[in-house]
Design brief:
This protein has a single domain, classed as Alpha-Beta Plaits (2-Layer Sandwich). The longest helix has 16 residues. Strands 2-3-1-4 form a four-stranded antiparallel beta sheet, covered by helices on one side. Helices cover about 35% and strands about 20% of the residues. With about 100 residues, it is an alpha+beta fold. β2 and β3 form a beta hairpin.
């Protein structure tokens, strides 16, 4: 039996639960880590960032975690409106971000 999918779901649930306590930066020019649904691909996540007027800085440990700089105010709200499951401080959530680049 393949346990990869349930293990991935459990891991992502723990990440979301743990990261929900991490505050989003309050400075309007601060970057955020946007976590999109794991069933999305990188192109869907990048398109959601573009619709949110965000600029991708780098990719996280998986393709649907993107570090984003704002091009205007209220980036976190716009990212959530376009599908982000979670928006967190990228420094505090550093373990999820990996070393990928955009």
């Amino acid at each position: 039996m393949n346990y990869a999918v349930p293990a991935l779901i459990a891991a992502l649930t723990l990440i979301v639960a743990g990261a929900s306590a991490i505050a989003v930066p309050t400075a309007p020019e601060s970057a955020v880590a946007a976590v999109f649904p794991p069933w999305w691909d990188r192109e869907q996540a990048a398109a959601a960032v573009a619709r949110s007027d965000g600029l991708i800085v780098r990719e996280g440990a998986i393709a649907t975690i993107l570090v984003v700089r704002p091009a205007g105010p209220d980036l976190a709200d716009r990212l959530r409106a376009h599908g982000a499951v979670l928006v967190v401080d990228p420094v505090a959530a550093g373990g999820c971000l990996g070393t990928g680049s955009a």
